[in-house]
Amino acid sequence: MTEAAAGPSPLPGADLELVAALRRGDEAAFLTLVERHHASMVRVARSWLGNQALAEESAQEAWLAALQGMARFEGRSSVKSWLFAILANCARRRAAREGRSVPFSSLVPGGEGDDPAVEPSRFLADDHPRWPGHWARAPEPWAEERLLTRETAEAARRAIGALPPSQRQVITLRDVEGLGAEETCGVLGLSEGNQRVLLHRARARVRAALERHLRGEEEEA
Fold it and tell me: What is the pLDDT of residue 136?
């Protein structure tokens, strides 16, 4: 991974100590890092590969690469985003080997078709006398207790899994794993504008799927 330009390390003291221990070959430090990030890495790898077993193998490959490259890690990005960037490279290579590679055109918003992120019928007409182009009906608020159910969480996971690959990768990094916009752009090699559009489209599709779920409607094929 290519880290940001030289400057003060953004890492908290605990992470700096962990990285130092890893460079000394401290096995306990490595186990701590694995416990902290392995599950997230598998989820992110699955956003490329769509297969749990392949995602696990890709994460293992990324851990090996991280160990080999630890001496070159200078702490100018977070440990988490550094690991995810390594994982992204491993997942891309694995996807190519498995015949699951994604065309470059799908990595930019226009490459996934021009379908609107939200159904046009949900907006007022452009010639509306007072509110042209505004919401015809505002999105419904959701009761927190309904959003926290296991069924709703599973519906959200299915909705994310059904997204086009680049949208799935962006929303997984941003909304599932909590990376910032700049980190996500670095991991995926996207411009800030493309990342923003892909995230907007992904969130809109997931929200629409959750609306259908909460209304008790069957999921779209």
Answer: 58
Domains assigned to the chain: 13-97 (1.10.1740.10), 107-214 (1.10.10.10)
Instruction: Walk along the chain (221 residues) in steps of 10 and give the mean pLDDT of each run.
Output: 43 71 84 92 91 93 91 78 93 82 45 53 63 56 55 86 93 92 92 93 90 73 46
Q: Number of C-alpha atoms within 13 angstroms, CB side, residue 202?
A: 29
Smallest CA-to-CA distance from 183 within 18, 44, 68 is with 44
pLDDT of 182 reads 92
Nearest Cα to Cα of residue 72 among 32, 23, 9:
23
Residue 152 near residue 92 (C-beta atoms within 8 A): no
Question: How many Å apart are CA 62 and CA 75, to the nearest integer?
Answer: 18
Q: Can you name the residues that pair with 135 across neighbouring β-strands?
A: 123
pTM (two decimals): 0.71
The Cα–Cα gap between 122 and 152 comes to 23
